[in-house]
Design a protein that fits this description.
The complex is a heterotrimer.
Chain A: E1 9-13, H1 16-33, H2 37-56, E2 61-66, E3 69-70, E4 73-82, H3 90-93, H4 107-114, E5 117-123, E6 127-135
Antiparallel strand pairs in A: 1-2, 2-4, 3-4, 4-6, 5-6
Helix pairs in contact in A: 1-2, 2-4
Chain B: E1 7-8, E2 14-17, E3 20-29, H1 31-47, E4 54-62, H2 67-82, E5 87-90, H3 94-103, E6 111-113, H4 116-125
Parallel strand pairs in B: 1-3, 3-4, 4-5, 5-6
Antiparallel strand pairs in B: 2-3
Chain C: H1 8-20, H2 22-30, H3 33-38, H4 43-63, H5 72-90, H6 95-103, H7 106-115, H8 123-165, E1 170-173, E2 176-182, H9 187-203, E3 208-215, H10 221-237, E4 240-244, H11 248-256, E5 265-267, H12 270-280, H13 291-294
Parallel strand pairs in C: 2-3, 3-4, 4-5
Antiparallel strand pairs in C: 1-2
Helix pairs in contact in C: 1-4, 1-8, 2-4, 4-5, 5-8, 6-8, 7-8, 9-10
The chains are: A alpha+beta, B alpha/beta, C alpha/beta.
Chain lengths: 147, 133, 296
Amino acid sequence: MHAPLTPTARLPIGSDADLAWLRQHVRQCAADLGFGLVQQTKLVTAASELARNTLVHGGGGHVEITTPTDGARRGLRLSFVDSGPGIRDVDLALTDGYTTGGGLGMGLSGAKRLVQDFVLDTRPGLGTTVTITEWVSGFPAPRPGAR
Amino acid sequence: MTDFPAVHPEPVPVLALGDILLVTLRGDLYDGAAEQLQYDITQRIANSPVPVGGVVIDLSGVEIVDSFLGRILAEIAASARLLATRTILAGMRPAVAITLVELGLTLPGLATALDVDRALAMLHRAPSVEGGA
Amino acid sequence: MVQHDTAPEVAEQLSEFLKRRREQIAHRWADAALFSNVFTVSRDEAVEAGRAVAEALADVARSGRLEDIEAPGFDTVRDQLGRMTSARTQSGYTPTQIAREVAGLRAPVAALLRAEFDDPADERMHACLLELTVLMGTLRLVVLETTINAGEELIARQRQQLLEVATPVIELWEGVVAVPLIGTLDSSRSQVVMESLLEAIVERRARYAILDITGVPTVDSLVAQHLMKTVAAARLMGAECIVSGIRPAIAQTIVHLGIDLGSILTRAGLADALAYALTQQGIAVSARPTAGADSR
């Protein structure tokens, strides 16, 4: 089997400095796995949205970063975990423009549009876990010229 | 693009170029620094002894704009407009633009330019604020 | 598939033989077509590669999983076999021809194995030869698998190249770029169009970008959305995007999507779009000379 290029990591989400660090970490992982620039940018942006949700709505938490494989395909999977109040109405929370946090209401719905795989698991009073997965498209070799 | 972009916990400087305010964003911006910038720009426009001819925000060094930073940029432009000043976003990268559109943030009503030079030219050509959005 | 039972002591003996005689095997393989045609520069390299494969086969035999292409022993040589087969594929060999070359590796090993036994009727020898045949068959499958994987990778890469070739971005005038699209637009191609047009805007410092879809017969809603997103993204970058040559069917798709066409600049054809871009930049575009009208 292939050894993962990027080891599994677990990063805390407790401050806006953590968000900045997470963005850089995800960018580096995505670049190492051979994601193109646009895919990298989408992934980092989705991570930023979800981490901010974890921080603002979940009262902080952590993110787990893994690199799953599916046959020859490689992917990057991020799980945002908090033990906050949870989301009461998931459909409403995924509606564009719906906000409780003073943002634009694009966090959850926008992040969902940016990635290939989006799974939301929430229990009122117990917390929320959002897992996103993005697969490297095309051929697996990283493009050295990619910016 | 091998080195990490710099993280900026410190405030972003607002430079005056004649009667125009120029802000250059680079790398990754802390949420706090973005909010501080919004406050700084509004204060600079309000307290300027001469009317400010425009605000140019250079995004060419920015690798991601999420909905938080997008909201801040839209709010800077909106408050500047209330103070009779135009705001132009300059040099947004293709990947950032694609992502913002995908995110659902098309920032309507915000003026854009390919680079700072073009933004300055736009402000000099039409120094006054047009009435509508 | 019929499960073939391997007596552990036979597998062990075969493994021991492969390990002990790996040098001789490697030297004979180095002259076989598969190795000699790949390692053309240095015979030492061919011998080294052969030794690695022989050791891997010894490991697989020891593990007793002689029929299992997933046997851990093969992992050490998978990359190596992949490099060898892709070298063969690039010189035009089909998977069948490569498989035949792999099959050709059995005979020299079998000859060495026979020489181990004094009595040609020794039952242990026949058992070992049978196991060797099974093992070499599995190796052939492993090689085929890597060949097919390499082929798929090649197809993916070529598909990407084709996409890029099929969407040329041209500079019509200083500050005006255009993509004339011809043929069916699918989702992945419209993604490439979007990215190359936006890249061209930065590279050429283009104030105007023209998306000409005269040659596109129809679009589905996903592609129409991509086109609209391209227009929005270009605007965020500070360029104006003009869509020209929208056919009635496409116009209908766009209307069905509920997209406000008022927010998109459209022109009937590429020429009209260019005229618009030039006029906006203060370049006078005069009407057609009257010579054509006189000849009527």
